[in-house]
Amino acid sequence: MTRPSQPTDRAPVVVGTPGSFARSVLDERHPALIERVRRATPYPPDRQRALDALLDEITGGPIGRLDDDEPGAGAWRDEPYYGQRWADVPFLWAESFFYRRLLAAVGYFAPGPWRGIDPFAPFKNAELAGAGVDDELSALDRLAALTPAERDRTLLLSSLWGNRADLGFRLSAGEAGLGDRVPGLVVDDSPALWSVLAAGEPGTVCLVADNAGPELLPDLVLADHLLATGRAVRVVLHLKPYPYYVSDATTADALACLDRLTRASGQAAEVGGRLRRAVTEDRLVLRAHPFSCAPHPYDRMPADLREDFASAALTVMKGDLNYRRLVGDRHWPATTPFAEVTAYFPGPVAALRTLKCDVVTGLAPGTTAELDATARSWRTSGTHALVQVSA
């Protein structure tokens, strides 16, 4: 397969410039998250002091290093951004390091009673136990009434919009047609996605997960659909090796979702049972590569991960963070072709992404101006989304 060449002129890297979305995350979301974590779990005084110190640093001080005795500190030793302001370094790196520092503050990696305690578990568990989840799962019972093509589109868009309760599994083909009922889809390459899967013998699909809880449930249902329809003989679900970005899915979160499915009724329980068997039969593989929590774009992926993606018939990247890492967290002109910025990727790749940050590529000429005129915050509000494919 011949891949297009990468862009010769690299766009500026996203940093926390005043008034930007990145700056609002650094100045508002991160301090608020520290307080939210503090309220959710009764940490002892030493952990409270560590949280205080991190809060002081991100709101007033330069970037400090991990303590030398922090487990895994060596992996961060040679990063070039220490001593600088958080807003002045690449946003992708700053976010990633903030979460690594937060885990250090709560003792996630250190020997002792707090080792392995997910500081975001209270939030993820509450979402998964929400009353609305049962309603969403019960909607799977209505899929049998759809045509195969309608089921394909319903489950793909359910995975895309999984963190929006009003567009979960309730996406069903009505009189007006499903496409007419899904506003905000700024790019829709879904026909190309299905074409890639139909182009040869069924193989492996890599599904790179984003969030846990109600968003991971439709991802798992999509994985079951790919296996059940023969589009894939194996689905490799890439998860985070440790808690990351508040709600990113770990192996523990995936197992919790499988349990939630099997405890439901109707089609949801059947899906859960099939997926559990698929894990035991190595047809659904849970993988947690260390690079999944690295502060770098995917063009810096290590050789073993590159081989994993190269062996797949298709890699599906879910969510906003994976999109930023896939195209590079840069201020690309919105019309920059998606295939150009993903030219380095070792195989066919698709992005299913709800827009929650400024970075976007692959829009048709004129679309940006139209969106800017009609929906000023369309890049960051989560009201718009895209399905993009590069084969």
TrEMBL record:
GO terms for molecular function: metal ion binding; methyltransferase activity; phosphatase activity. Keywords: Hydrolase, Manganese, Metal-binding, Methyltransferase, Transferase. InterPro entries: ARMT-1-like_metal-bd_sf (IPR036075), ARMT1 (IPR039763), ARMT1-like_metal-bd (IPR002791). Residues 26-368 form the Damage-control phosphatase ARMT1-like metal-binding domain. Pfam families: ARMT1-like_dom. Its cofactor is Mn(2+). It catalyses: beta-D-fructose 6-phosphate = dihydroxyacetone + D-glyceraldehyde 3-phosphate; beta-D-fructose 1-phosphate + H2O = D-fructose + phosphate. One of its GO terms (biological process) is methylation. It comes from the Bacteria. Belongs to the damage-control phosphatase family. Sugar phosphate phosphatase III subfamily. This is Protein-glutamate O-methyltransferase family protein. It comes from Streptomyces apricus.
